[in-house]
Amino acid sequence: MGEISVLDSNIEHMVRMAILHIIQLGTKHGVFKVISRGATQREVLDSLDIPNKKLLLEFLNTLKAIGIVEERDGRLKLNGFSYRLDVPKNHYEALLPGWVAVLEEIYRMVDYAFITPTHPHVLMDFDKDADFWDIRMNTDFAALYREVIAKTGGIGQGSSVLDLGCGSVSPYEFGKRIGYDGLYVGVDYSPAILEIARARVEGESLPVELKELDLKLLRPVNEYQTTVMSFIFEYLKPEDYRRVLRRALGTLRPGGSLIILEPFRDNFRHIEALEFFEKLNKDFKRFPAMSEVASLIADEGFDASIKRLGRSLLKVTLKP
Amino acid sequence: MFTKKVIKFAIDNNSAVFQQPVFCKIKGNSNACRNAGGRAVDTMIIDPQVLRSIHRSELRKRILLYLSEIYPSATYLSEIARIVGSDPSNVRGALVGLGNRYNGESSLVYLGLVEEVSNNGFKYYRLTEYGKKVVEYLREYYRYYRKFM
Ligand SMILES: C[S@@+](CC[C@H](N)C(=O)[O-])C[C@H]1O[C@@H](n2cnc3c(N)ncnc32)[C@H](O)[C@@H]1O
Q1: Rounded to an integer, what distance in angstroms lies between the CA atom of residue A30 and that of residue A39?
Q2: Looking at this predicted complex, what is its ipTM?
Q3: What's the whole-model pTM score?
Q4: What architecture (CATH level 2) is domain B48-145?
Q5: What residues does each domain of chain A span?
Q6: Residue A131 and residue B143: Cβ atoms within 8 Å?
Q7: How far apart are CA B50 and CA B34, in angstroms?
Q8: Closest approach of chain B CAs to the CA of A257, in angstroms?
Q9: pLDDT digit string (tens) for A169-179?
Q10: By CB atoms within 10 Å of each CB, which of A48, A61, A134, A270 scores lowest?
Q11: Which residues contact A106 (CB under 8 A, 6 or more apart)?
């Protein structure tokens, strides 16, 4: 099994497991019980003893998006949802343990977020909880996607790389690959994440520069051989995609490539289940669709080839 | 940071086994073992709340740093107390819990960061493999915690 399909299998499994946890939450908090009486959305919201109504509403919307619940004549109905959690024989060994442990922590946070979004057990803020994010970006799954990005983007000794929304682990990991004669520039808007990234690269004399910046304010410089956007579109509003893509492509030199990694929503059915948990981070918007990103790039008139690699990877290469 | 004089103490003939990451022994996973020194391969969950609480407690932090300096050796309580400049009863509290000062739940042994080893009727303390990882994270997060917590 190639690395890209291992990546896709793991994302697929994340989504399937998330559905299971959505069902678990609905059972635990009595949501299904109330809905089964044929209540309206308002009645469900009012009758459940969950103080954070905004999150409860988000939960109901998730149930609708997945198809566990439908709204008919103003009433919510359970519609006998069923799904399978298959692990084909040859995929077992491809499943990576690291993300399971992290997602388990996140499932647990929902119970606290149902009380209040600012509960101290909710650890999803990029600044306040940069330690949790760092741990999340340090799993075997993250090591795999970095490997895939590096291979797809040709990142190696002497490369020049711009990483948009770099997080706290990639600067060190990519910096090591690039070696002393290359350049890695990481951009991130979280000062806390960058503080951890700095602590890790300092003293290693790696060719790493880190900049605190909102990537929406990026200036095109035509400098880099590879620009990386990994798990970052999900924090952008769809109306900003076009501008960000234009600028990201504008950072490349001729022949350079932009690597986009995302659990694209058009490729993973029921992705809304995973989104529900990611939304505990206030900046999370939604996972993008591969088709919308690809067509925006085509629209922008860049002389570029767009390659869809598996279900979660896009490689856009400018003409040399 | 601390004086280098360390009483090295080999626990028993199994010390080589002890030095292996826990999950290598459990899973017999040679890949995991090979990568254990690296950053990414990891099946032991690190709880940020535990890291934060240790960061806030100077004594527990000092004990961990000292034990990590002499890792994988073990040492006895009074030696730890002398090195970290605290009295033995406080150190015992931090290690295994004691009355109300440090309740057992936040003690280093209870959290699995330090293990207590008995040998010939004496008790010795040593950083666990998990504890070693936690110390690594504490070092990396030190500045972040200072600034953002
Ligand atoms: C899920 S992490 C991914 C990190 C890294 N790219 C990786 O794949 O390991 C998202 C990162 O993007 C950063 N981020 C989100 N929105 C951003 C924006 N508009 N500008 C800059 N950084 C942003 C966050 O601070 C966080 O570090």
Answers
A1: 13
A2: 0.88
A3: 0.89
A4: Orthogonal Bundle (1.10)
A5: 147-267+284-318
A6: no
A7: 27
A8: 26
A9: 999 999 999 99
A10: A61
A11: A124, A277, A280
